[in-house]
Design goal:
Two copies of one chain form a homodimer. By secondary structure, chain A is of the alpha/beta class. Chain A has two domains: 2-272, TIM Barrel (Alpha-Beta Barrel); 279-375, no CATH class. Chain A contains 14 helices and 16 strands. Chain A has an eight-stranded parallel β-barrel with strand order 4-5-6-10-11-12-13-14, surrounded by four helices. In chain A, strands 1-2-3 form a three-stranded antiparallel β-sheet. A three-stranded antiparallel β-sheet of chain A has the order 7-8-9. Chain A is globular. Chain A starts with a strand and ends with a helix.
Chain lengths: 377, 377
């Protein structure tokens, strides 16, 4: 149940109440692909850095350990020891990007597991069943995610099929939530708006899916090839056609600046692998832009990554030490980097919420972006 | 300053007071080779699992980040954020086992760095200088560590040189501790007894080095090729010739059973990479023997690694979850495994100390070994 608390321009301050607790929005979801955050970050760590909601990947969990295993273990919350909300994607994106895709048909998608090559079929019903077994708080609809810059004719046909699939997802989720042995009988379903960079297709699609009265709406298929400016234009065009009383989720986005621009256009939920991936490559996010700890100038630098930062890495360890660990390929380096970066993202979202509450989001956004751009290495 | 508190048979209960705090013995040192524990275990974690003293490797720190860097950063304690005692080895063992050894001469050892191949010379003076820069609590003497089963004639010549090197170490350490810019002016020096499996050589060597009145004495060159029974025999033979008022350290040992046997023969300090290395391979230490979490029978096992264990892994995560993370090669698996194993070792040492205090070490040892043997997978 989403409640819009207030608006500041198009930026929205809200809260989503779920069976696993309430999420204050806008929010950044921390990505734990296989039911664990990359970089040896534990769920205890997540609690200590202000994580409100975790995202796991349905495809990965389906192939290993298997969603049936997770169901037998009482669902993903119990399995990974995390009692706050979890969102699962539909599995579709990974099938298209990671697995050996064989064929898209009306009934669903045929592909090969990236683990053992075994043939798998996944359609809307299968995706819902898997997510129901995982028992996430929020399930995502099964859609096709074509390249955002694909041909118009391809996108049109794909979006029409995604709409047909969405109806099947909704029906299947209703059926599953009513079954006696379903773990989370209040599992939410978010629909996904598609249409590439073609705003008219996106708007038509938004009009159709908003009528389906889903628990939330995502804008999918962006940040996969088009420019940032095109992504912002699509958001400008399509978000007004999504229902104001439902949460809006911009999938797979992005940099801190992308998120600020998304919030400015009415987006509530974000997720991205950047904090973890950049951390693993020695890149730390700060209010003065990204810095690369592998840089020789940090060899004798006894300051924390960011002065004043209250994350577990900055409270205790120096740039020089983390740089040494990165160069020695010591795992603790990755844990400290990822922890810092997730803390940076989570803290920025908290600042964003405070700024909207205080009707000063535009000033906050401008100052934050200028600060980050000024110091970018 | 070592204080022998009481004996129970040959098992010794003592404490070593240092400038970085007091260590209750017998103790197991947790190994943090490059200034960090393998498996992304942080110094905060070490504090939470009862670690009293950490061991780092001089050779590794000398080649990266460089002991001069560590000195500029205020010493290893400050660099890695650990304020309890640290023991550094001499660098000799790694030179002989890991680096590209070129030549052993009277003045020291010529070798190539395993990082960049650069030629390095290390003799007793260099080892002391490096360890003084690192500013560990306890420095180890620079010795040769030949195979324990090498020819008698080789061992004899090697031990004689190790004795000459030990005198140079002691002189150099005294000089360094008196320098105005030395970080730890109370750095302790432990000598190392060598002699392979030849007890008469070991005893003669022990008689010589005990006269040098060092801060502690190690038995080195064991657990590198000989059987466990030979190792125990050597300890039976040589420990009585080491001074009772100094701590005794059995280097690089070993399994829980090895440690119990070592304590039973008067040893106070131990170190070993097994808890970390076994953890990385899915092997967990328990009171019922080692278990391998990769075993299929743990797929749906919702119990902790060891029921009743109070380590951060067992308090929160199941065998099934850790097994999944191990199979997915997720870094968190290694952190949880290593944390559990170090906690097991640290807890066993605490139990050993309690047993000696209560004059029931023999019973404790017997029950512990029987329990571990009974359940070993």
């Amino acid at each position: 149940m989403y409640k819009l608390l207030k608006k500041d321009g198009n930026a929205r301050r809200g809260e989503l109440t779920t069976v696993h607790g309430t999420v204050q929005t806008p929010v950044f979801m921390n990505v734990g692909t296989v039911g664990a955050i990359k970089g040896a970050v534990s769920t205890e760590d997540l609690e200590s850095i202000g994580t409100q909601i975790e995202l796991s990947n349905t495809y990965h969990l389906h192939v290993r350990p298997g969603d049936e295993v997770i169901k037998k273990m009482g669902g993903l919350h119990k399995f990974m020891s995390w009692n706050k909300p979890i969102l699962t994607d539909s599995g579709g994106f990974q099938v298209f990007s990671l697995a050996g895709l064989r064929k898209i048909k009306e009934e669903g998608v045929y592909f090969n597991s990236h683990i053992d090559g075994r043939k798998i079929f996944m359609g809307p019903e299968q995706s819902m069943q898997i997510q129901s077994n995982i028992a996430s708080t929020i399930a995502m609809a099964f859609d096709e995610c074509p390249s955002s810059v694909a041909e118009r004719s391809y996108i049109e046909a794909s979006v029409a099929r995604t709409t047909r699939w969405l109806k099947r997802c909704k029906d299947e989720m209703a059926r599953l939530n009513a079954l006696p042995d379903t773990i989370n009988k209040h599992q939410m379903l978010f629909g996904i708006n598609q249409g590439g960079v073609y705003s008219d297709i996106r708007i038509e699609h938004a009009k159709v899916i908003r009528e389906m009265d889903l628990d939330g709406y995502a804008v999918g298929g962006l940040a996969v090839g088009e420019s940032h400016e095109e992504m912002y234009r699509v958001l400008d065009d399509v978000v007004p056609y999504l229902p104001e009383d439902k949460p809006i989720y911009l999938m797979g986005v992005g940099t801190p600046e992308n998120i600020l621009e998304g919030v400015d256009r009415g987006v509530d939920f974000f997720d991205c692998v950047y904090p973890a991936r950049n951390g693993r490559h020695g890149n730390a996010y700060t209010n003065h832009g990204k810095m690369n700890l592998l840089n020789a100038k940090y060899e004798l630098d006894d300051r924390p990554i960011e002065e004043g930062c209250q994350c577990p890495a900055c409270r205790r360890y120096s740039r020089a030490y983390i740089r040494h660990l990165l160069k020695a390929k010591e795992m603790l380096a990755l844990r400290l980097m990822v922890t810092h970066n997730l803390y940076f993202y989570n803290t920025m979202m908290s600042e964003i919420r405070d700024a909207i509450d205080a009707d000063r989001f535009k000033e906050y956004k401008k100052a934050k972006i200028e600060g980050m751009r000024a110091g970018e290495e």
